[in-house]
Design a protein that fits this description.
The protein is an all-alpha fold and 321 residues long. The chain has one domain: ABC transporter involved in vitamin B12 uptake, BtuC. The protein contains 14 helices and 4 strands. The chain has a two-stranded antiparallel ribbon. It has a two-stranded antiparallel ribbon with strand order 2-3. Helix 1 packs parallel to helix 13, helix 3 runs parallel beside helix 8 and helix 5 packs antiparallel against helix 6. It starts with a helix and ends in a 10-residue tail after the last helix.
Length: 321
């Protein structure tokens, strides 16, 4: 069985799971589950986690991982928050806010990429070290307090609606489309998959694997800037400790969405489906009054079951068919 077939199976499994969740909650809480308020809630929860999941996914496609996405988001958020609260609320200030966040992301991504691609530190150790360093710096600079009271050009992102669709969700969909184009339609995307499949073979075929890895971690950090902006708009504040629970959930969404942890294959559409599944589960269980700890245990069980279903196909990968 081909790798493409395995990926197609991932999306089939996710479709079946989503259908099962919809049917279950339609019987248990039909009036509340199908209410516009519930879907509005799901739509507001997906964007930040979704962008962070994409930031994780691009690194995992190369066989790596980025454990510093939350710390990067908060570092970029604190820098953008400082700029936003110290300059008059004008268009030029908004541009300066974005540029300051991108500059921070470029520094963090370059350091991660350098450690992994040039120094050859394990991605887990390199990003864990950067995560710990950033967490310390974030708390030291902000003194553990939040920076709040942002101008309307930031708060308006969360409050705006276009044709009844929340602006943050539209931002997420645009990011999904851009990442899909990068991965599926560009030379860089194809190179990224090749490096994830076999870095040594990619190197001997003439690909600059070091440059590719550095840019992958820069891209991951840039996505964290978008997540930081969405978080700032949603909470009207930036803090060193925001989003800590998102790290493991983003990894869960990426793996559940069909990204191979060893690199080489996976698609953006699978991640979107996994995010929808997880948020529907969380929303439905919250309505039923189920403990958040039980929800986390269910997510872990879901991941293990999903890995088992995928594992059934593994022997077929080595068959002549």
């Amino acid at each position: 069985m081909s790798a493409k077939k395995v990926k197609d199976n991932v999306e089939i499994y996710l479709s079946l799971l989503i259908a099962a969740v919809v049917v279950a909650f339609s019987f248990l809480i039909p009036n509340i589950f199908w209410s516009s308020a519930n879907f509005q809630s799901i739509a507001t929860q997906i964007p930040v986690l979704g962008v962070l999941a994409l930031a994780m996914a691009v690194t995992m496609l190369t066989g790596g991982i980025n454990l510093s996405i939350i710390a990067t988001m908060n570092a970029c958020g604190l820098v953008m928050a400082w700029v936003a609260t110290h300059y008059p609320p004008t268009i030029s200030s908004f541009v300066l806010v974005i540029l300051s966040g991108l500059a921070m992301a470029l520094v963090i991504g370059s350091i991660n990429g350098f450690l992994i691609a040039v120094v050859r530190v394990s991605p887990i150790l390199a990003t864990l070290g950067i995560m710990t360093l950033l967490n310390g710096i974030n708390i030291l600079i902000s003194k553990g307090s939040a920076i709040s009271n942002f101008p309307e050009y930031i708060l308006g992102i969360n409050s705006a609606n276009i044709l009844g669709i929340p602006a943050p969700l539209l931002v997420f969909l645009v990011v999904v489309a851009v990442v899909w184009v990068i991965l599926e339609k560009t030379t860089f995307g194809r190179t990224l998959y090749l490096v994830g499949s076999n870095e040594r073979a990619a190197y001997y075929s003439g690909i600059n694997t070091r440059k590719t890895l550095v840019w992958v971690y820069i891209l991951s950090s840039v996505l964290c800037v978008i997540a930081a902006l969405l978080m700032m708009s949603k909470l009207n504040s930036a803090k060193a400790s925001y989003g800590e629970s998102y790290l493991l959930v983003s990894i869960l969404a990426v793996v559940l969405g069909g990204i191979n942890p060893d690199g080489g294959f996976g698609r953006v559409f699978g991640i979107v489906m996994a995010l929808i599944l997880l948020q529907m589960l969380e929303s439905g269980l919250n309505i039923l009054g189920v403990s958040s700890y039980i929800t986390m245990a269910l997510w872990g069980s879901l991941l293990l079951a999903f890995i088992f279903l995928k594992g059934i196909n593994i022997p077929q990968l080595f068959s002549k068919s």
